[in-house]
Automatic annotation (TrEMBL):
<dbReference type="InterPro" id="IPR015422">
    <property type="entry name" value="PyrdxlP-dep_Trfase_small"/>
</dbReference>
<keyword id="KW-0808">Transferase</keyword>
<keyword id="KW-0032">Aminotransferase</keyword>
<dbReference type="InterPro" id="IPR015421">
    <property type="entry name" value="PyrdxlP-dep_Trfase_major"/>
</dbReference>
<comment type="similarity">
    <text>Belongs to the class-III pyridoxal-phosphate-dependent aminotransferase family.</text>
</comment>
<dbReference type="InterPro" id="IPR005814">
    <property type="entry name" value="Aminotrans_3"/>
</dbReference>
<dbReference type="InterPro" id="IPR015424">
    <property type="entry name" value="PyrdxlP-dep_Trfase"/>
</dbReference>
<dbReference type="Pfam" id="PF00202">
    <property type="entry name" value="Aminotran_3"/>
</dbReference>
<dbReference type="InterPro" id="IPR049704">
    <property type="entry name" value="Aminotrans_3_PPA_site"/>
</dbReference>
<keyword id="KW-0663">Pyridoxal phosphate</keyword>
<dbReference type="GO" id="GO:0008483">
    <property type="term" value="F:transaminase activity"/>
</dbReference>
<protein>
    <submittedName>
        <fullName>Adenosylmethionine-8-amino-7-oxononanoate aminotransferase</fullName>
    </submittedName>
</protein>
Length: 443
């Protein structure tokens, strides 16, 4: 008889049970302290155990936790939608429970938009390799992540068609700026081949997260993408599930490039992990034909816009705003990057440091080998395991262009992390990397 029936990511592995969290730290039942250097799954954006949020959730739970959205609206959900509209300049908002659902909803709204306008054949959604948009079948269809797709081919849609903007290992083996943004221009070629009359939208993560490890595009990339989308009447969906809600130093990461998408998916940082909620934000231009047409959005879940999660997200966003945490991200990011670069100089298995704000990535030289016989893992998962054993949590990322050979991690501590805590993180990573360095060798 197994000890527990809770399905874990790796079934026969053991996972420490967490007891509580405070700020950047988590504590397990054995009393071990972990520095949460990746905010879980880049989610606990304002740290753990924030008293104001806990109070707001308790107050709402005392009033009402759940109402069904087809019977009632509720104050926290209405207020949250208003707050998001002001913050993002997207007037329409649909609440769901996970990033995957926010992406699914974005795709469905894009398709419905064209149907309501009388273009029923515009249904395909183009996407990039080296991407992750979610685990549900629609979001997985758009994901350029072979390892996550391979079991479900019969249930998912077309493969992605566009190469990622990955200068570190350019898929076209070119160099910026001589490449003339071939990765962006490839979208136009694909649109022409497939026919714009069949394409509803193009979806991309402004900074490539789970599949790439915090990869920034080259300058001008998103401007070119938007120009191409507009030219062929294709909606641009920004998947900001990981990058949004202030993580990169702006509320939306795409604002770093001054480009306005048509639809945005938010998740993770929206409630910073205090309760499951995600959102699809939609422009007036995209919504208008739907309002003028069937006047309903074909989507929604039982828990959509529930008052409890809405109050959690609302209190998180209000706190972020009143404490001006987003405005402080850039300066602290420079500080954090300074220490990551120091690590790169000290440890030769580190090859690339990148990302924006508090979404930073480290790519390892991919010809490093783990010497310890008992470790049967990729270098990334080996590093993540050793780091956890040493009291630092890191997020494994980087599928690689072939979906298998990538070797990167994401460093994304809560945006509330202080400079002193950044220094502590550096010291801890330094000693973990020293241990790793003594156990690995170049192949
Ligand atoms: N999109 C992006 C960019 C993500 O990073 C993720 C989660 N890693 C998702 C979608 C899916 O979100 P969820 O796990 O909440 O379904």
């Amino acid at each position: 008889m197994p000890h527990s029936h809770l399905i874990k990511p790796v079934l026969n592995d053991t996972y420490p049970e967490i007891d509580y969290g405070k700020g950047v730290y988590l504590y397990d039942k054995e009393g071990t302290q972990y520095f949460d250097a990746c905010s879980g799954a880049v989610t606990a954006n304002i740290g753990h155990g924030m008293e104001e949020i806990v109070q707001a959730i308790a107050t709402q739970a005392n009033r009402v936790s759940f109402v069904y959205r087809s019977q009632f609206s509720n104050e926290p959900a209405e207020e949250l939608a208003n707050h998001l509209a002001k913050e993002t300049d997207f007037p329409w908002c649909f609440f769901v429970n996970s990033g995957s659902e926010a992406v699914e909803t974005a795709i469905k709204i894009a398709i419905q938009h064209w149907q309501e306008k009388g273009y029923a054949s515009k249904t395909k959604v183009l996407s990039r390799w080296l991407s992750y948009h979610g685990i549900t079948l629609g979001a997985l269809s758009a994901s350029g992540h072979p390892a996550r797709r391979e079991r479900f081919h019969s249930m998912i849609g077309d493969w992605p068609v566009v190469e990622p903007p990955y200068c570190y290992q350019c898929p076209f083996e070119k160099e910026f700026p001589k490449c003339n943004l071939q990765c962006a221009r490839q979208l136009e070629t694909m649109i022409k081949r497939m026919g714009p009359a069949n394409i509803a939208a193009f979806i991309a993560e402004p900074i490539i997260g789970a599949a790439g490890g915090a990869i920034n595009p080259p300058e001008g990339y998103y401007q070119k993408i938007k120009e191409i989308c507009d030219k062929y009447d294709i909606l641009f969906i920004a998947d900001e599930v990981m990058t949004g809600c202030g993580r990169t130093g702006k509320f939306l990461a795409i604002d770093h490039w001054g480009v306005k998408p048509d639809i945005v998916a938010l998740g993770k940082g929206l409630s910073a992990g205090y309760s499951p909620i995600a959102a699809t934000m939609i422009s007036e231009r995209v919504m208008q034909p739907i309002i003028d047409g069937s006047n309903i959005v074909m989507g929604g879940h039982t828990y959509s816009a529930n008052p409890l999660s809405s109050s959690a997200a609302l209190s998180v966003l209000k706190l972020i705003q009143s404490e001006h945490w987003i405005e402080k991200v850039e300066e602290k990011s420079i500080y954090l990057q300074h220490y990551l670069k120091k690590l790169k100089n000290e440890f030769s298995f580190i090859d690339d440091i990148r990302g924006k704000g508090f979404l930073l990535g480290i790519e390892f030289k991919n010809n490093w080998n783990v010497l310890k016989a008992e470790v049967d893992a990729s270098f990334t998962s080996y590093v993540v395991k050793e780091a956890q054993a040493g009291g630092v949590l890191l997020y494994p990322a980087g599928a690689g262009l072939d979906g298998k050979s990538g070797s990167a991690i994401i460093i994304a501590p809560p945006i509330t992390t202080t400079k002193r805590e950044i220094e502590e993180l550096y010291r801890r990573l330094r000693s973990i990397f020293s241990i790793i360095s003594s156990k690995v060798a170049l192949q």
